[in-house]
TrEMBL record:
The lineage of its organism: Bacteria, Bacillati, Bacillota, Negativicutes, Selenomonadales. Signal peptide: none annotated. This is Transcriptional repressor NrdR. It comes from Selenomonas ruminantium. GO terms for molecular function: ATP binding; DNA binding; zinc ion binding. Keywords: ATP-binding, DNA-binding, Metal-binding, Nucleotide-binding, Repressor, Transcription, Transcription regulation, Zinc, Zinc-finger. Residues 49-139 form the ATP-cone domain. Belongs to the NrdR family. A zinc finger (unnamed) spans 3-34.
Length: 155
């Protein structure tokens, strides 16, 4: 591995450990030329996942879109970025593990809503209001009633 400081090609691994729930290997390295230390991450290279939009267009899956949507839904809630990132990782893992190389955008939206429902009810309603394009207060109230019924079933 090339040293980021002196650009020499020889380094040795000092420490290796699993990171990100086993999806990544974190390696601490030391350059044999200059002696400086640096960290590298090793991940499995994945085939690109394509999202099929509602109008039939296809685009490359971008986890940042899910992350940003969840961050917006959790705005002004007492939820850490670490928790949001972990939820996003779970969603991405589910998409990659259970779906094909082409995934309908509607399925991704349903998965995000399902995960948010158990994560934070207010964030779920905020996300649902945008995702389902609530036209009026009655559609908003219907969703609240469904959420309440779901909550009572869990008891």
């Amino acid at each position: 591995m090339k040293c980021p400081y002196c650009k020499q090609n020889d380094s040795r691994v000092i420490d290796s450990r699993s990171a990100d729930d086993g999806a990544t290997i974190r390696r601490r390295r030391e350059c044999t030329s200059c002696g400086r230390r640096f960290t590298t991450y090793e991940v499995v290279e994945r085939q690109p996942l394509m999202v099929v939009k509602n109008d039939g267009r296809r685009e490359v899956f971008k986890r940042e879109k899910i992350l940003n949507g969840i961050i917006r839904a959790c705005d002004k809630r007492d939820i850490s970025l670490e928790s949001i990132t972990s939820l996003t990782n779970d969603i991405e893992r589910d998409i990659r593990n259970t779906m094909e190389q082409e995934v309908p955008a509607s399925e991704i939206g349903k998965l995000v809503m399902s995960k948010l429902k158990n994560f934070d009810e207010v964030a779920y309603i905020r996300f649902a209001s945008v995702y389902r394009k609530f036209a009026d207060i009655s559609s908003f109230m219907e969703e609240l009633q469904e959420l309440q019924a779901h909550k009572e079933q869990e008891k």
